[in-house]
Amino acid sequence: MKKFILASASARRREILSHIGLEYTAIAADVDEITGLPDTPADIVRELAKRKALALSDKFDGDTIVIGSDTVVCMDGRVLNKPKDKDDARRMLKSLSGGKHQVYSGLCVTDGEKTICTHAVTTVKMRDISDDEINAYIATGEPLDKAGAYGIQDKGGIFVERIEGDYYNVVGLPLEMLCSILSRDFGVSVLEIIK
Amino acid sequence: MKKFILASASARRREILSHIGLEYTAIAADVDEITGLPDTPADIVRELAKRKALALSDKFDGDTIVIGSDTVVCMDGRVLNKPKDKDDARRMLKSLSGGKHQVYSGLCVTDGEKTICTHAVTTVKMRDISDDEINAYIATGEPLDKAGAYGIQDKGGIFVERIEGDYYNVVGLPLEMLCSILSRDFGVSVLEIIK
User: Fold this and answer.
1) By the CB < 8 Å criterion, does A180 face chain B?
2) Are A13 and A6 in contact (CB under 8 A)?
3) B128 touches chain A (CB under 8 A)
4) How many domains does chain B fold into?
5) Using an 8 Å Cβ cutoff, are B111 and B64 in contact?
6) Of B19, B167, B193, Cβ closest to residue A163
7) pLDDT truncated to tens, each residue of chain B (195 aa)?
8) ipTM of the complex
9) What domain range includes position A12?
10) Is B167–A158 a contact, with Cβ atoms under 8 angstroms apart?
11) Burial of A123 (0-12, 13-18, 19+ CB in 10 A)
12) CATH number assigned to the domain comprising residue B52
């Protein structure tokens, strides 16, 4: 029987795994998220997912699978991380209003011997959001701890017209891709995950 | 200050509205969902959403807004409702495996004077699902009360490769569309909804 570790402090990622029934331990991986990063959003999230997963290498014992993930929002080639403050959140939401952006999540799954790193992209179309609506949304406190300053799974969902890709990738963890990797590369069947 | 009534027994719809912060009362509308239905999925879900909303017409008092919704899954022109039993769920999931299907949700918003009915369509791409996986999923009990025999917001999410359209429409209530109608046609601003 395999044990699973989610190398993440994100409440959203934890909720996704808990919700489908997977039993796991969550451990925040303390990694450098600033220096030596590659140039493209896809390479950045893969690298950070890998750093998080490999930071827990002292947990590898042959039966443990560590899952790392990292998410960024990308608008017109610019990477949006978590906003620094309310003004930063306001700028981000104004730039996302009415347009399409991409959400990149990197995923790294490793048991210490085999390491699979990949990523998923989902396009999100936001409706026009007025300044009053942006201020009301920021007043809820929700945007401040989220890449791109919104949460599709929370109140921010009312601004999302449509997406193209995996929904859970926007929340922060590409769920179908994770389960397929667990099954194909690590011999963990769906039966064990959703039981 | 407006009052809101959700004309639905669906726990999923209730959760969506509660989660964004809207205060409402949920009342299951007892309507005929069988006879006199139109032919196309879009017309069917609009008609049923309207029947549900108007069934609560005794609640109209000038300040009350009633929201009706209905969802069906459509595969190759065939409408899939909730499965009758496990065998029916198995047939539905086998037909959805590996392909694309459409989820239609009808939406009817009315205050007794003005009535707005519309619908949304989201395309869902499922990955290939093996017979063992289908059986494991049915054994969780999740498919039996859901149109199309899966819940994207629950364990069924692990089978969904991608969607094109509104995620919440697949769950059962087109959220962005609802909030836009409330704002545009009934003068209920986002500030009142997500406060």
Assistant:
1) yes
2) yes
3) no
4) 1
5) yes
6) B167
7) 899 999 998 999 999 999 999 999 999 999 999 999 999 999 999 999 999 999 998 888 989 999 999 999 999 989 998 999 999 999 999 999 999 999 999 999 999 999 999 999 999 999 999 999 999 999 999 999 999 999 999 999 999 999 999 999 999 999 999 999 999 999 999 888 887
8) 0.92
9) 3-193
10) no
11) middle
12) 3.90.950.10
